[in-house]
Amino acid sequence: MQITGFPCDPGPSAWNSLLPAAKPRAFLEADVTADWLVIGAGFAGLSAAKRLVELNPSDKIAVLEASRVAHGPAGRNSGFMIDVPHNLTTADYAGDAGNNEREIRLNRAGINFALAMGTEFSMDHETINASGKINGAITERGKAHNEAYARLLDSLSEPYEKLTASDMTQITGTHCYQDGLYTPGCVMIQPAKYIRALATGIESTKLNIYEQSPVVTLQQQQSTWKATTELGSVSAAKVVLCVNGHLQSFGYNHRQLMHVFTYASMTRALTRKEIKQLGGQDRWALTPADALGTTVRRISGTGGNRIIIRNRATFDASMKVTNKRINKVAKNHDRSFHYRFPMLGTVDMEYRWGGRLCLTRNNVSVFGEIEKNLFSACCQNGLGTAKGSVTGKLAAELACGIKTPLLDDQLADAKPQKLPLEPIASLAGNAILRWGEYRAGSEL
Ligand SMILES: Cc1cc2nc3c(=O)[nH]c(=O)nc-3n(C[C@H](O)[C@H](O)[C@H](O)COP(=O)(O)OP(=O)(O)OC[C@H]3O[C@@H](n4cnc5c(N)ncnc54)[C@H](O)[C@@H]3O)c2cc1C
Description:
Layout: H1 14-17, E1 31-39, H2 43-55, E2 61-64, E3 80-81, H3 100-120, E4 128-129, E5 133-137, H4 140-155, E6 161-163, H5 165-172, E7 179-183, E8 187-189, H6 191-202, E9 207-210, E10 217-221, E11 224-228, E12 233-241, E13 258-267, H7 272-278, E14 284-288, E15 295-301, E16 304-315, H8 323-340, E17 349-359, E18 366-371, E19 374-378, H9 384-399, H10 405-411, H11 424-440
Parallel strand pairs: 1-2, 1-12, 2-9, 5-14, 12-19
Antiparallel strand pairs: 3-8, 4-8, 5-7, 6-7, 10-11, 11-12, 13-16, 13-17, 14-15, 15-16, 18-19
The structure holds flavin-adenine dinucleotide.
């Protein structure tokens, strides 16, 4: 098959830019054979590769990445590894009640796998930290979402803590949050630092990661799969596809994947005076009570003390957006930032970027053996930090013939529901997003 589209990652993500420049890895420029080929070096791809090494220590593994490690969505997200239900297709994240317990088991398995790799590869607390997160509410509607979410957690016997307006000010420094819902199981990562550390940790003489080596064709030839890049090829008995929404560019799941971009901005480092004016704690992580509201993080560490704003979502079937869009969304980010932090009136954004999510209408992934010896761990429904980690690991287990109850949980996912034809899907998708953002009001 001829691959029909390649990743486009608009704007340099701050998470990567704050770190020292990484030495580029070699690109593929020869015809090589391997026991395993993993395509895509995000959460799913690197987790799959790690599990393959654990299960087959003497096998040769090749990982092909179209871009640089941590330059794609895996290095440009907000870093929330969320354990509890967080269904982005419903305003209050409640999702499908019948699936919630299974989803929590899977998310926690992904998070535990990531934490174990964090320990094995000596990642520090800035890279990965089990700090929990808060759902912050600004409006009455947001407060109602938090109450509904608390009832959902009660029904699942999941722990949480309710925070008052004054607790929220004490934590965040701003007076705009009316209440909060703290859930302790979320693990926070510096995404680019985590992905870089994971890639470096798993590399060996047996496992090669090739950067800037997009797969341009993938073909089955008798008992092997052959992936070609511009200057070389990898032939392997088994392939794990970990390309998230680009699964569609490989010819699969046509009219089933929703390609959504979301956007983020990060401030310059705050001065000591500004840190004092802001108040609050020096690290916290907040998702909006309304799924189409604004995610906010305060960080301190490499790059100093900064605030990150993430909001807006656009349905882009082409999987590409322009810089014009980034500039347009920047205005929303500035408005959301100054509304929350009026005491930081002179603080500008230093970085602005966007990135791709892949969702399905019914919030399921595309997982399993999609052709003989070709496995998919794709479509993470916007929560790939945890879901990519677990689906990558489980795809490796499935490919190795291992059976576990958790794998059964993952295999129990329904098939993705069909989307309307284009341009109806895009028009409807964008109309739903704009209406949801309008209803989110000041949560945005
Ligand atoms: C601004 C923003 C904030 C987000 N916040 C969060 C959050 O807080 N928590 C959360 O869980 N998720 C979040 N996400 C979503 C998260 O980033 C994704 O769900 C996650 O990265 C998906 O992981 P993955 O490994 O499946 O795919 P990806 O990270 O997309 O990795 C797939 C890789 O495949 C490569 N690839 C594609 N085509 C080819 C090809 N032809 N050949 C070789 N390689 C190829 C790509 O370059 C890419 O590196 C956010 C996303 C954005 C953009």
